[in-house]
Amino acid sequence: MNADISPILQEWPFEPERTLRVIMTPDGRRVMQVRLPLGIEQYELDGRPDGLRPGGMDTALAEFEERLARHVGEGDGAFSMSHEDFSRLQAESLLFYYRYLMLFQISDFPRVVRDTEHNLRIAELVEQYSSLEEDRTALLQYKPYMIRMNCVSRSMLLIQQKEPAKARELLEQGIEAIKALAEIDSPAFQFEKIRSINYMKTALNQIGNTGNSPMEELRLELERAVQEENYEKAAELRDRLRGLE
Q1: Measured at the alpha carbon of residue 216, what is the angle toward residues 215 and 222, in degrees to the nearest 5?
Q2: What is the per-residue burial (b if ≥16 Cβ within 10 Å, else e) of 68-105?
Q3: Both ends of the chain: CA-CA distance in Å?
Q4: What global pTM score does this model have?
Q5: What are the strands of the beta sheet with 30-36, ordered from one edge?
Q6: Exposed (0-12), middle (13-18) or buried (19+): which is 59, by Cβ within 10 Å?
Q7: Cα dihedral angle (39, 95, 146, 187), rounded to 10 degrees?
């Protein structure tokens, strides 16, 4: 079907500061929409971000795990992941990655934890069953980032529950988990490893006895700077806050 989407785009004009929204569909589903300069992306909040059900399963990961369990149950010997299997899982992990980036921006931390755990499970299976080194590298080089987003989101939930000590402990465990990862000969891996560790150390330093998250601390500082009419500092804090988000 050919349809002009100009009326939809005009109803929601592109503004760099307002690119995310969650709406209710006519059938009662809540979906997340992302406004881009030339269009709109839509993500399901639950299940696969694109709403598809590969092989009648919720996700390609679930389909693969069901096949793996069936293979083990039948005792057919060693199991290996084909390049086709890897490509399907990698494509799905990319969809989940795009979604949890957006979910993090709207502070939907439970769903970020769910989606990062999904991708960490894919990484675990690739590491265990893929026989192609290039496939393993292609996905595992981003594992530090997956761990970081998972740990930071879980720590945010603990902070919301007024348990800053547990949040700090979780971040410390995440840092050690990243340090313990097997080395991968990839510039992206080294970059993500260093960046993730530094990010989590910064988060640790910003979680004080008040139990405020790093973003909450920066927002409070921003409010104080505006009240004091220190607009130069306010602009700097706003940029730091956007970078953290």
Answers
A1: 90
A2: beeeeeeeeeeeebeeebbebbbebbebbbebbebbbe
A3: 38
A4: 0.82
A5: 20-24, 30-36, 39-44
A6: buried
A7: -80
**Residues near 170 by Cβ (< 8 Å), separated by ≥ 6?**
151, 154, 155, 158
Which pLDDT tens digits describe the chain residue by residue (245 residues)? 688 889 989 999 999 888 999 999 999 999 999 999 999 999 999 999 999 999 899 999 999 999 999 888 776 667 889 999 999 999 999 999 999 999 998 889 999 999 999 999 999 999 999 989 999 999 999 999 999 999 999 999 998 888 989 999 999 999 999 999 999 999 999 999 999 999 999 888 887 645 555 666 666 676 666 666 565 666 666 766 666 55
